[in-house]
Amino acid sequence: MARVGFIGLGVMGYPMAGHLARAGHEVTVYNRTPERAGKWCAEHGGRARPNPREAARDQDMVFCCVGNDDDLRAVTTGPQGAFGAMAPGAIFVDHTTASADIARELAAVAAQTGFGFIDAPVSGGEAGAQNGQLTVMAGGNDADFARARPVIDAYARACTLLGTAGAGQLAKMVNQIAIAGLVQGLAEAIHFGKRAGLDMDEVIGVISKGAAQSWQMDNRAATMSEGRFDFGFAVNWMRKDLAICLDEARRNGAHLPVAALVDQFYSQVQDMGGGRWDTSSLIALLEKK
Amino acid sequence: MARVGFIGLGVMGYPMAGHLARAGHEVTVYNRTPERAGKWCAEHGGRARPNPREAARDQDMVFCCVGNDDDLRAVTTGPQGAFGAMAPGAIFVDHTTASADIARELAAVAAQTGFGFIDAPVSGGEAGAQNGQLTVMAGGNDADFARARPVIDAYARACTLLGTAGAGQLAKMVNQIAIAGLVQGLAEAIHFGKRAGLDMDEVIGVISKGAAQSWQMDNRAATMSEGRFDFGFAVNWMRKDLAICLDEARRNGAHLPVAALVDQFYSQVQDMGGGRWDTSSLIALLEKK
After folding, report:
1. Which of A182, A283, B51, B188 has the highest CB neighbour number within 10 Å of its CB?
2. Closest by CA position to A5, among listed A43, A58, A41, A81
3. Domain range spanning residue A177?
4. What is the pLDDT of residues B216-232, one digit of tens each?
5. Is the ipTM of this complex over 0.95?
6. Please, which residues bridge with residue A119 across strands?
């Protein structure tokens, strides 16, 4: 069992840290809102520290799951950031969905000090975090990954090293770009079918057996038809992710015409008051009166 | 066993008519190019007729699978069209992917003469036709469908009545609209991943377990990464189908921004000489130098 720190007890981090505690690791936590850290400690028996640096001190590994690049920079290289207390030989595992740039930057800083850094964004959402069934896409070096993986397994059903620093973030972007076009296509299809007067449950039942099938069709078509979006992965978070994708594409020269367009559609869903709706709410924009 | 006519021995119709013959039905065929009808008869032992009307004469059911609305009108209500010889009580089953408008129009004409009409576009492609594993989306009335279905089963793994005349065509449009956005999203994702220097086989292996999964990802991601498109459902046919979707949307008021955009991308693939490439060739446009 390891001594681990966990920074960021949000919707994802809270249950992930819980799985680490249940797996027998000695967990020290930090959260921006201390009350939530207190609640976590009361539930799981760990210790809370007043800043990331203290949460990282004397740990074998430090995990992190915060909101975006700025939050990540603050809790790592900022004043009282974790990097100021990372021991040589320790490993910092970042589960934030962030840019590949910051992953490479932090990996370089970590290497100078002599500790490891793994970028490890996840997919599987809140349910995956709660059930310990997340998919982890990792970037880093083989030795660090080999040491971190058995610990990560506490909340992951799959954890794969996809390349050097930043590769985890880039793979997560591939995932989000595919989803953007896919969900918009599905939204247009269901919207069209409803306008055409079809029984969409029956139609989806038939076409989900063929070349139009997708996880989104299997898991979201029914709620999209009904106009229910009060669950799942929020539009605000998807916009943050798509901004990272579009920014990276500007650098690597990739063309993302539909991802860029869908990002604009999501901005209109936000204007409708749907920032916290599930990403499948693209259909609400098509059906807006 | 039934006496049946089959009009249109193309890539789809040829094997479909073959399954009817193998199932023991007495099959009479018509094809625009008579040599191909001759070849079919040599192979399956049926009879060929010089025009659709003669192929339809004295049949219990007549099947049809031609290219588009114009072809369909020609072989049904045109001079020497099949409708001129359909017996009262017979059923005409149209497997062409055509407009819902022409389906409703032909169903009305059929009703006047006292025979049945079912619009029954298929999905599953050339492989599905050859293996007898097509998915059939039908529109029409219950009684006609109940009689036609056991015959259709010779080449279908699923055959579902989705509503009155035109409903089969509308369901096929839902299918194609969903695929358009989905394939473009997948193309952008793979294109981005390649530009980012990722090992796309590994990345797809990971993300295909989650919310980005689709039949297209499972069956086309590898060939898209390699730039191979010499198989599958041709861009020229997809453009025909999307034209039908966009035309119907103009009538029913549905908004299809991405389907319309992807249709334009396919027109650019045609300009690249890719009219016969598989629909997954959208990635070739993104990667064009």
Report:
1. A182
2. A58
3. 170-287
4. 999 999 999 999 999 99
5. yes
6. A94, A139
Residues of A with CB below 8 A from B234's CB?
none
Read off the pTM. Answer: 0.96
- A254 to B192: CB separation less than 8 angstroms, yes or no: yes
pLDDT digits (tens, 9 = 90+) for B260-281: 999 999 999 999 999 999 999 9
Instruction: Tell which of A116, A133, A163 closes a domain.
Output: A163
Q: What is the largest CA-CA distance in chain B?
A: 65
Instruction: Give the total number of structural domains in chain A.
Output: 2
Asked whether the beta carbons of B108 and B101 are under 8 A apart, the reply is no
Contact A180, B183 (CB under 8 A): no
Query: Residue A5 — left, alpha, or beta (φ > 0 → left; ψ -120 to 50 → alpha)?
Result: beta
A170, A210, A258 ranked by CB distance to B185: nearest: A258
- Which candidate in B184, B209, B217, B241 is best for mutational testing of the A interface (most A CBs within 10 A)? B184
Last residue of a domain, one of A117, A145, A163: A163
Test the A interface: residue of B159, B192, B251 with most A CBs within 10 Å: B192
The three-state secondary structure class of A61 is strand
Whether residue B176 is found in the same domain as residue B136: no
Pair of tokens at residue B94: 């149209």
**Token digits of residue A228:** 């229910």
